[in-house]
Model the fold of this input.
Amino acid sequence: MRERIQQRLRGDAPPADSDAGSQAADNGLPFDYRVRVLVEIQGDPDELALAESQLTARGWPVREPKEGEYARDEVTASYVPRIVEVRLLGAKEGVAQHALHEVMDLAHARELALHVRDAALIQHPPDPHSTWKVHLKRTLTRPERIRRRLGIHTSSTGDDPQPERVIRIPEDAPEAEALAAAKSHSPTWPPFNDREHEVRPARINSAPPVALAHGLSAAATVFIAYLTIRSVRFPADESESWWYTLGVSSLLAIGGGLTGWLVAGNTFIYRQSTALRTILPWALPVLAPAAYAAVPQVGQLVYTNYLSAFDLSGEVSAGAWPDGLMAGVWVSVAFLFGLLTGVGAGGWVYRATARSGTAFGTAVLLGMYAGTLAGWMLASAVTDRAADSGDRAVAAAQEYRTPGAYYGLKADFTCVRPKEKDAPVYGGTLPADRPLLTFGPKGDRVSLWDPKTKRALSMRLEDASFLPAKSEHGKAVCPRTK
Done:
């Protein structure tokens, strides 16, 4: 490399290929904008070789300037000019200044004998061509023939056949020029027959209606899942009418079909993304222990909503760790199902609109945002169902019937006998003639709930004795004191 640089400095080297630097410096990283930076490097071959190697290592092609790209009297004596193409990812605003400082920072960090003189964003005029598609002729319907005779043009592309070819001609060119372009290609291209083919302007950025259908299917999936969570009871009550059973069966059947559709969408995303195929095999085992520890904490939301019906949120010890795990699994699965619904729908939308210019990352990102919203809604449905269970437990307790256990939370009726007449009680006065509901002690205190007044009480364990309530005719009562 040093010999080639010495030849270029003496003027003996043949002219370099302008594309050689671009190919040599291409590191495969994505970029949005290219900035042409004029630099001057000290003419010493070693300094010039070092500077060029450092610039190309960053993925920035370096080449000799072309005629007119710099003024000869602008370059410092004993320095030679070079053009550096800085490729950046990000916003367009301020990109030239950003590129200039990137080169300056590199020169400072590597102690390069390099001065930055100018930087300008490389811009090209927009493509002055329009797109036409070549496809087989289609028999027009009567309404379409009437609209064509009246000169009415519709924007619908749902009935357009898929093109066999897509050609580009200058903008505002007539249809005759598109026909000529379709016929003028070499025989290696698909032949064009006036009797079988026709040309039509193509709207490359228009999404087919099937994309909307995929979005509506995802919304229907979330809605069915929400109804299932909020309404379906497992196991079903034998007293339920036949139409309830039929409705539940229909919901589950439709939901199962849509779930299969979503699995296919997520599978398509997985196959299209190299990053997912690389990360998931080792990320899932790493995340499993963290999820195993975090899910029981999510279960606290279920307990909080259940106990809110008794005004005892935070006053009762939650169930054991396995019970908290099971409670949290429902919330986590609901959120994950909503998230995968959005991602799966994004996969189907991308599959339907990729040829219309939709970017893969955009479809996945929008699917993740929509899925996060859907997951939050389904997780909220699970916690709302916990609140409904709490309301049913309150209704049973008001009739002095013991509510059933709920993920490790076991309620019992107890009769409280204060050891002293003025024993401190938080929240009201202890009744002596009726039992109170309790979910057990928490530390040195116990929380109680009075079914008659619907008030929560709290006291220290040492201030009273607690006797189990008796059951008479299916209702809890306190034994009579002598």
About this structure: Residues 15-24, 235-240 have pLDDT under 50 and may be disordered.
